[in-house]
Amino acid sequence: MALETTPDMATTYLSSLDLAKILQTPFVNEAFIDFSVADNKRAMLEALAEVGTELGREYDLVIGGNRLKTAGKIISTNPARPGQVVGIHQRAGAEHAAEAMAAAQKAFQSWSRVPVVERAELLLRASAMIRERRFEFCAWLTYEVGKNWAEADADVGETIDFLEFYAREAMRLDKATTPIQLPGERNQLRYIPLGVGAVIPPWNFPFAIMAGMTVAAVVCGNTVILKPSMDATTIAARFMNVLEEAGMPDGVVNLCAGVGPEFGSAIVAHPQTRFIAFTGSKAVGLEIHEQAAKTQVGQIFIKRTILEMGGKDSIIVDADGDLDAAVEGVAASAFGFNGQKCSACSRAIVDASVYEAFCERLQERIAELKVGDPAANFAAGPVINEKAYEKVLGYIAIGKEEGVLLNGGAAIETAEGGYYIAPTVFKDVAPTARIAQEEIFGPVLAVIKSHSFDEALAIANNTEYGLTGAIYSKSREKLDRASEEFQVGNLYLNRKCTGAMVGAHPFGGFNMSGTDSKAGGPDYLLLFTQAKSIAEKIGRASAKAEKQEEKMGI
Ligand code: NAD
Fold first, then answer.
1. Bridge partner list, 187
2. How large is the average pLDDT for residues 396-421?
3. 315 neighbors 329 (Cβ within 8 angstroms)
4. Which of 199, 235, 281 has most ligand 1 atoms within 8 Å of CB, for mutation?
5. Which of 8-17, 239-248, 479-488 shows the lowest mean pLDDT across its residues?
6. Which of 191, 306, 445, 538 has the most CB atoms around its CB within 10 Å?
7. Cα dihedral sign for 429, 434, 436, 441?
8. How far is the CA of 200 from the centre of ligand 1 (A)?
9. Residue 54 contacts by C-beta under 8 Å, 6 or more apart in sequence?
10. Is CATH 3.40.605.10 the classification given to domain 7-67+115-309+517-531?
11. Is residue 548 predicted with pLDDT exceeding 80?
12. Cα-Cα-Cα-Cα dihedral of 506, 509, 510, 511, to 10°?
C-alpha cells in the first residue's frame, strides 16, 4: 500500500501503465476489500493512523491552477468527534464565480480540442492512483463523513468504477455514426462538449458522486467549476490533487469550496454556465432547476440541468417472500451508512400474513447492530452533522405519534459528542404518515402493513419520489407486475435496494427523485454533450440517390 505518493513516484508508476491497451479492455467492477483478511485490516488501521496525522490541514481554492486564499473559511469536521477538524478550506464567495468561469472558459478552448483518447487516459491515470492509495482514501471518508470501512471502500470502489467506465464510454461515444449513410455523402455524428459546467455534489457519496459527475463532464471535453459539499470538502481537495498529479491541465477543473446559497447559487446563475450537474436534496434541486431556467443578460443558450435528488424508498415483503432474506435486505438497505443513502429503504411494506413474524425478526436483527466510531468499524455510526442530528430526532418524535416504536428512538451520547442516533424502527405506520412520506435521511424505518399485493404496490407508489425500490416474492407473476408497475428508477427483485453497481445498475430516479440521468449507464455521457450532424458531399451521387434526395426535400 502506498499512502502518499510524490509527483515523481506517481509519474514513474503511471508511465509503466499501457493506457491505450487498458482502454481497449472491457470494463470490470472493482472488487470490494475483504476486511476480515488480516493484511487488509492492518492496512486500513495503518491508513487511519497515517491520515490521522494529516487532519486539520488547510486547503486552497484552485482556479486556473492557481492556489487562492480567502478571508472566510469552511471547517470540515469528523461527525464522530465534532471537535476534530478534518480540513480547513477557503470559502469562495459569489465574487469568485467570475474568476472561476474565466479560468474554465480559457481551459475549454484547448481542452475541448484534446483528442478523446487523451482525455480518457487522464481518467485511467487518476483511477490507477486511487487504486494504489485505496486504503488512504477509505480513511479520509471515515474521518470526514463517518463511513465505516466497508461503506468507505464501496465509495472508493465506485469512484474507480466511474473513472474506468466513463473513460471507455467516451471512446465508444467517439465512434458514433449516423444510422444511415446516404449515397454520395459522408455522414457523421459527433458528440461534442457543451462548455463550462457547474458540478454540485452532496456529502453522502462524497468521493464517487463528486468525482463521477466531474469526470463525466471532463472526459467529454467540458471544463468544470466544482463546488463540493461543505461537509465533505477535504475529499474533493484530495481528489483535485490526484487529477493534477495525473496530468490534468490547469483550469479544466476549478475547485471552489463554498456555501450552496452563496457560491453555488452564483455559478448556477452565471450566464456562461452551460450545464449544471447536481446531486442532492429535492428542495435544492428544484431551486437550481428554477434558477437555471431564468435567462440571464448575455446568455446565449438554454442551460441544461442534470438533477439527481432525494428518495423515499420502499421494500415490499410479499406473503410468499423469503422472510429471512427480506429481513436482511431491509436491515442492510435501511441502516447501511445509517440510512444516509438516497437509495436507503425507509419504508418496509409487509403483507399482513407475515407482518408480525417479520416485525419480530427485524426487531431482533436491528438490536444486534452495534453503534460506535466508524474508525473502529462499528456497523452503525453517526449522522453527518448537528443539523441532520436535530432533524432526525425531530422525525423520531413525530414517529412516536405516528407508529409503534420497535427499536431505538433516541440519541446515543458519547464522550466525544458524536452525532449518534440509535437505529430506529416504527411499526404500524400509516402509508400517508409523515415518516412514511418525507425523506428523513437517517437511521429511521417505517414498517407499513398491506393486505394485498395490489395494496402493497399502491402504497409503494404513493410518494412524490421514485428512486429505488425492492420486492421479496417467490411469485414470477408478482415480480413481473412489480417490474411493470413499481414506479422507480432502480428496482431490485429479491435483493436489497441499495448498492447500485456501475454498469450493471445505471442509477437515477423518477418523479421528484430527479431527471433520471442514469449515472454509470450507457446514456450518461450524452447528457454532457451535444450532437453535431455533419454531411459532406463526396463526388457525384448516382442519379438514383439524387432523386431520393429530391424526394426527401433535402
Ligand atoms: P443538499 O441539497 O443540501 O446539498 C447538495 C449540494 O448543493 C451541496 O454541495 C450544497 O452546498 C449545494 N447547495 C445547497 N444550496 C444550494 C443552492 N441554493 N444553490 C446551489 N447549490 C446549493 O444535499 P446533501 O445534504 O448534501 O445530500 C443529501 C441529499 O442528496 C439527500 O436528499 C439525498 O437523497 C440526495 N442524494 C441523491 C442521490 C441521487 O442519486 N438521487 C445521491 C446521493 C444523495
1. 535
2. 98
3. yes
4. 281
5. 8-17
6. 445
7. negative
8. 8
9. none
10. yes
11. no
12. -160
Of all protein residues, the one whose alpha carbon is nearest to atom 14 of ligand 1 is 260
Average pLDDT, the chain: 95
Cβ of residue 311 lying under 6 Å from some atom of ligand 1: yes
CA angle (527, 185, 553) in 5-degree steps = 85
Q: Is 554's pLDDT higher than 80? A: no
pLDDT tens sequence across 267-277: 999 999 999 99
Q: Is 281 in the pocket of ligand 1 (CB under 6 A)?
A: yes
Q: What is the pTM of this model?
A: 0.95
* Count of CB atoms situated within 10 Å of the CB of 113: 9
Q: Which residues contact 7 (CB under 8 A, 6 or more apart)?
A: 245
Query: Mean per-residue pLDDT for 300-312?
Result: 98
- The answer to whether the Cα torsion of 191, 194, 200, 206 is positive or negative is positive
* Active site amino acids: 308, 342
Residue ranges, comma separated, of all CATH 3.40.309.10 domains in the chain are 313-501
The best mutation among 224, 226, 229 to test binding of ligand 1, ranked by most ligand atoms within 8 Å of the C-beta, falls on 229
- pLDDT score of 542: 58
Query: Does the CB atom of residue 236 touch ligand 1 within 6 A?
Result: no
pLDDT score at 71: 96
Which residues are CB-neighbours of 88 under 8 A, at least 6 positions away? Answer: 56, 57, 58, 59, 73, 74, 75, 76
**pLDDT for 10:** 60
> What superfamily in CATH does domain 313-501 come from?
Aldehyde Dehydrogenase; Chain A, domain 2 (3.40.309.10)
Mean pLDDT on 344-360: 98
Domain with CATH 3.40.605.10 in the chain: 7-67+115-309+517-531
Q: Residue range 445-454: average pLDDT?
A: 98
Look at residue 1 in the predicted model and tell me its pLDDT.
39
Query: What local confidence, expressed as pLDDT, does residue 4 receive?
Result: 47
What's the 22 CA to ligand 1 centre distance in angstroms? 34
Distance 549 CA to ligand 1 centre (A): 50
